[in-house]
Every structure is written in structure tokens, then in C-alpha cells.
Known about the structure:
The chain is 33% helix and 23% strand. The chain has helices at residues 55-62, 83-86, 106-110, 112-116, 122-135, 151-163, 181-198, 209-215, 233-238, 242-248, and strands at residues 17-26, 29-39, 44-48, 70-75, 78-79, 91-94, 169-173, 201-206, 218-223, 226-231.
Amino acid sequence: MSDHPKNSTKSAENISVKVTDLHKSFNHHEVLKGVSFEVKPGEVFVIMGPSGSGKSVLLRHIIGLETPDAGKISIQGQSIEDPAVLGQYRLAMVFQSAALLKSLTVGENVGLYLTEHESKPPAEIDRIVTQTLETVGLKGLADRSPSELSGGMQKRVAIARALVVEPQLVLFDEPTSELDPLMSVTIGEEIRKLNQRTHATTIVVTHDRDLAFGLANRMAMIADGQILFIGTPDEVKRNTDPQIQKFINAELNSKPKAKP
């Protein structure tokens, strides 16, 4: 989650993100191979592809946790190579593991940003935390330990933590990983409601096809560190690229034979 003081950020405006010819290697293994795309202000942009395709590495670059070998990332036309640029905007990231602090209660996790920056009186922070937890369906759980919650509930706490920042840009890394299908639908609904409520520019990386097609305004299909296609969900489904069709239509090719 962003650690920039609220009074250093710009007003609540929708922001754009542009990635230009991004390259990244680890131990001589090229993970990103010239990735380029642009995310429009306020849209839900999904980056979908198989495991190992570079999705999470790409997301970490956008939030400034990784530095590219070559290429550029810009927010509102300003390169994030200048660290001060990220400090001008309210950014939030929901990590694949939820990344809750186990030494804090659920409520303390959600209100951490507000508490750290003393941006509101304690009573007001408590009110915001209570209201936000209710918004994501976790009413009355502020005093619980994160370890007492299921994986899906922990993901919703992480979304609540992002909500209190009133983000202009929010990023989700595999938000439905390790969740059952019903909870995956619930998390997808929470992401959609967050976008509708805050109008934050939203970037989701996932290999979950149902989540991607259900959420996206536009999608980027990525494989082996390269963008294959960018378009609406319908345009992606109609695309005839064999790699895209193989991924979105993947299923078991054989069924168990009936016993005689």
C-alpha cells in the first residue's frame, strides 16, 4: 500500500498509466521483452496470461518495486523514474498473499495508513475502519487476528485497506489465487464495487479467465514476457491467435473412461 502522506498527493483525479517498451531480466533470463500498453483513466485493465508469463513482475514495475533494464513507465505523462512522481498520487496494491501484518488486528491493518500519517483523529479512523469493513462484508471483525480469517476474508481485508487510502490507482496481483470458485466470484465483485465507488484506475493481473472476462473494460494478453493482444473481452475472445485461443479455451482433453 502507498506510504505517501495524504497531504502530498494531488486532488482526486482519474489517472492514466503508460508502459513503453519495458524490458527486465533476472540472472540472464529475460522476463519482460519489450512490453507496451496504456491504461485509460478510471478503467479496469486486466493483464491475463499463464503462470510464468511475467504478469506479477510487470505489476511490481508499475508500483515502483522493480526497476526496468530498459523502457519507461509514466503516470499522467510523468516518468516514475523520478521517485517524486509516485508521491504525487494515492496508490494501493493488493498483494497475492494479502500481506496483512499478523501482529495487528484486522481493524489495525485496515487503518494502518491513516494511523501512520495521523491524517485523522483516532475516533474518526475507528469510524472509517468500521464502515469500510462493513462495506466489504466483514462487519464486526475489526478485533480479530488475521490468522483467524479464511483466505478469502483476508483478501477482503486487503481490499478494505486499499479502500481507506481513497486510491487513484489500485493494483491487484492474482486476487483469486488459492480461492474456491464461489469466493473468487465474491472477490471479483468487491474489485468491481471498489472501482465503481472510487473511480480509481484499476489494474488486475490474473490467470483466472472468469475473473478477467467478468471484470475487464479492456484486457492485455501476455505470454512469455510479451503482449500478444489488447482489446475488450469480446475482442479477445474473437482473436484467432493460436496462443490466445489455447489459453482461453483450455480444458481437459480427455475424460475418464467409464468402467465396464
